[in-house]
Amino acid sequence: MCGIIGYVGPRKVVPVIIEGLRKLEYRGYDSAGMAILEKGELVVVKKRGKLKALEEAIEGKEYTATTGMGHTRWATHGRVEDRNAHPHVDCKGAIAVIHNGIIENYQVLRDGLIEKGHVFVSETDTEVIAHLMEEQIDAGADLLDAARKTALQLDGAFAFLVLAKAFPGRIVAVRRLSPLVLGVGVGEMILGSDTPALLEYTHRIIPLHDGDIVEINDKGYAFYSLEDGHAFDRTPMTVQWNAAAAEKQGYKHFMLKEIHEQPVVIRDTLYGRIDIESGHVELEEFQGQPVPDHISIVAAGTSYHASRVGKYLLEELARIPTEVSFSSEYRYQRPIVRPGTMGIAVTQSGETIDTLAALRLQRSLGAKVVAITNRPESTVSRESDVTFVTQAGLEIGVAATKSFMAQLIAFYLIALNFGQRNGTLDAETSAHYASQLSSLSQKCEQVLEYAGIMETIARKFYKVHDMIYVGRGVNYPIALEGALKMKEISYIHAEGYAAGELKHGPIALLDEDVPVVGILPKGALYEKIYSNLQESIARDSPLVVLADRKDKRAQAIATDFIPMPPVEELFSPVIYSLPLQLLAYYTADGKGLDVDQPRNLAKSVTVE
Ligand code: F6R
């Protein structure tokens, strides 16, 4: 939520800010703005709308500033208007602030500041920071000290950057709960909400911890504690991603590129972890960790759906009782963590605030905690006993696709590893499953080859208002995920149901205007699902069926048929999720919608 960038160095800063914001725009795109120190003056430009609006506002201006910061907004407090865009400034227009997070006590602070004569121009929580800074600086504080004393007055989650006319060549950043990363370049320092924005300048990064303050200036960087102000050091780590990963590479959208990357993601996530001959799954990450007696998974959104598949796999392959909770619910319950429980937080970004809070709760209740994340440098990763890094690579499209795939593969590996270690799986069964798992990448390639079928079917959905997705067993979460993909990027109301539940209420919704998408792989539940699909035909719903390509019975009942390569039911979620991603993609694209940046969404949800 919200993207932040700050730079001090020899380059002209405006292009650095604009390019940085372009890479961070997936975090929010309601408005964009920048503050720079131009020839001794603080210049602030901000516009509602996407980054393009800011670019248009500064077009033709020849700025020479080399210190500055930028912000792309996902609105929380205050409507989407120019005045509510960041940066926010103090009464004199001499101090600028950008912020990601929510200041919970802003109203009290604002009232107090207004009483002292401060004039507010925005409806945001952030503006109080600029005025509190003004109070401190007017009282003689240095930029660093002013930022610390200001931050100590704030409740809630924040990462903010300050820049002031009186302190040229310096930016101070403070983090509590909202993510912020420092990029350590050669003779230049860059701060960003997320690593991809920094990769063009450096691969040496330091993720800020909660309670860190960092100052960047022409000499380098220095860390201080928010609590007591003492100075300390943090060592940079090197990230491997290259900047090209943040380009579309010929695809119309990042989402489409990321869908097509999935066969490689599967191979990369399996690489070095599975011996095809013996079926042995070796997970270095879990070395020294006993196989748990119970597992409690916390996650949100798409990661929650992957976790639902994970529960099925852990119970089926390792016979370990597993519960899955939305992190946003778990954190406000009184969960029971028994001895021998392993907590697993599943999060692509590693920064989802509810998932982080749920993991902390699990840990405080005595569970060993594992992170399944795509971001080894993330907060969730840092706070876990074990981190399983999914190898999805950088995911830019707001709708999660390849990271979901990598999470599924992670669960297959973990379930197989636990099942082998606790004696649930014998050598023969293990070898069989290993060979199934390693064949999935190729099967996904086959599905992607006929993406055109999904494009054609999607045309029928442009005018549809409601859709129902059904699956059963291990594919019930795939129905949930298919529906989520459709609603978040095409704005069609879509619901996923366990196929057997249809007749307990949702069937009342069905008629010739409500298409049903049925997931019907060969397997133990085939006949049950088949009958459930018949029930929808009887209500005149157009029926899209995903089934084995040779399945004549499925073809016979389908209005539209999506032929799938043969696969065992247990492994079908991997390949059956692909057509559903493509259906959503082509529907949204055909409707002319902004696939990579759907309205109201943000890739990393760092507010509650
Ligand atoms: C949907 C989507 C979201 C995320 C959710 C959790 O396509 O991307 O539902 O899955 O916000 O995010 P992470 O996995 O980063 O915790």
From TrEMBL:
GO terms for molecular function: carbohydrate derivative binding; glutamine-fructose-6-phosphate transaminase (isomerizing) activity. It catalyses: D-fructose 6-phosphate + L-glutamine = D-glucosamine 6-phosphate + L-glutamate. Pfam families: GATase_6, SIS. Residues 2-219 form the Glutamine amidotransferase type-2 domain. Transmembrane segments: none annotated. One of its GO terms (biological process) is carbohydrate metabolic process. One of its GO terms (cellular component) is cytosol. The active site is at C2 (nucleophile), K603 (for fru-6p isomerization activity). It is an enzyme of class 2 (transferase). It is found in: Cytoplasm. Keywords: Aminotransferase, Cytoplasm, Glutamine amidotransferase, Repeat, Transferase. It comes from the Bacteria. SUPFAM superfamilies: N-terminal nucleophile aminohydrolases (Ntn hydrolases), SIS domain. Its EC number is 2.6.1.16. InterPro entries: GATase_2_dom (IPR017932), GFAT (IPR005855), GFAT_N (IPR047084), GlmS/AgaS_SIS (IPR035466), GlmS/FrlB_SIS (IPR035490), Ntn_hydrolases_N (IPR029055), SIS_dom (IPR001347), SIS_dom_sf (IPR046348). Residues 282-424, 457-598 form the SIS domain. Homodimer. Catalyzes the first step in hexosamine metabolism, converting fructose-6P into glucosamine-6P using glutamine as a nitrogen source. This is Glutamine--fructose-6-phosphate aminotransferase [isomerizing]. The lineage of its organism: Bacteria, Pseudomonadati, Caldisericota/Cryosericota group, Candidatus Cryosericota, Candidatus Cryosericia.
